[in-house]
Amino acid sequence: MKFEDFFKGGCKILQSAIEGKALDPWIQNYLDDNPELIESFSVFLNWLNEDERHILQNLIYNPDLILDKLSKSAKAVCHNDLYFPNVGWDNDELLLIDWEFVGIYPTAWDIYNLYSGIPCPDLKEEEAFEVYFKGVESGGLKVDRTSWIKTYRQLDIISILAFELKDLVPRAFSSKSSLPEHKKEFIKDHIRNIVRSVIHTYETLTKE
């Protein structure tokens, strides 16, 4: 699957949640398996303030706003499924498995998946970036750090819209969620933070 298809597919699911119906036949199967998404997404949108709701919906309905920016970023061969279960060690050698989604993607994509998908609270984001930069540069390659980090932020929007919101919103906002209230509030705080991250990155992009 092409990189942009992951993003557009995720946005199409959120569009369907907003519209209250499946916009493509394959989405109906997803909604059948996740019947709480439409109800909870309506509650979630009303929970946002007007500016947040406007920006978020603008991105959901116009994924090319981000993809056009990413089209100008550096690309490389990426694993594209780099998270904890697919990473291991063979003696002292790093081992990656499950290469079925390998393809050409933005250079920051694997690092984004790796850092966001492997719990490592002692390694701050900036430190993780530096480990990557030094590793690449030790091989004789140069990294435009400013451009790379900008791409990383754009990928954050893609991950949030394509994956995180459709998974998190039903847990916190569905009337059928079985989570205790304190856990719902914890997830809502996290959602608030990622929405702010999306808006900050969006505002940065629109100023360029």
UniProtKB/TrEMBL annotation:
InterPro entries (alphabetical): Aminoglycoside_PTrfase, Kinase-like_dom_sf
Aminoglycoside phosphotransferase domain ranges (all copies): 65-115
Domain of life according to the entry: Bacteria
Protein name per Swiss-Prot or TrEMBL: Thiamine kinase-like enzyme
